[in-house]
Amino acid sequence: MDPATRARVEAWLHYGEELGVAPYFRDRATTMPAQDEEAKPLSPVEMAGSKPKSAPARPAPPATPAAALPIVAIAPGPSLFDVVERVEGDSLPRIREDIGDCTRCRLHQGRTKIVYGVGNPKAELVFVGEGPGHDEDVQGEPFVGRAGKLLTQMIEAMSLRRGDVYICNVVKCRPPENRLPEKDEIATCSPFLLRQLAAIQPKVICCLGACAAQTMLGTNQGISRFRGEWFDFRGSKLIATYHPAYLLRNPNAKGEVWKDLQKVMGVLGLQPKKK
Ligand code: URA
User: Is 105 inside a domain boundary?
Assistant: First the structure.
């Protein structure tokens, strides 16, 4: 069977059990904040010149790149979000109000602050991460720790400022010990993410890491199989790339991420920042 057909068949077979939420238990290691690597500045030149020396710690990409696969191979049926109704006249403040002092799932027990999202409510570009870590939990803002500093560098390398984009996560409360968000936690929290995206209506959604990408696309395929490819998501273009925390541990993957970000820049008409 050719790889494209195999991917399609696998996606169909897994769909019933998946609903886009099964696989996260496998992938947290790729997004866990690394203790051993310092964030290196991501200048465009450095990113562009950074050739991966080794493959990411992921399943090998298929012989046929995911680019060749239609979206149906990744998301063969309704994703988690297709069952969520659009809310008429929705807005970011209203969604935050609806979240309230949330106790809908067990994650509320260990949180310090709900990490809702930050940035331009009319952003053309939204970054979606996995869930708050320690620093985010304390400050109530996404991506403010080491991975966040790297994300900010990535944004600036695209000749944007952090305030130009919107940044949020799949789950809004920190999972204990930075574990992966569980299936039911994602199912409970992700409708708010969908509403945030629907309220912003960005041109581009960039999923950071497997959890965000798999949740949004309703797949359990490893991110390395489809990162850098474009998908349609409710009127936005969606692309997935590696999580900044993964880059902290695997700096050789910066070149691949930069290629993905350059695709985003192409869609948004951005030129790389001059040094
Ligand atoms: N990792 C994430 O996925 N989100 C954050 O907000 C911080 C780290």
Answer: yes
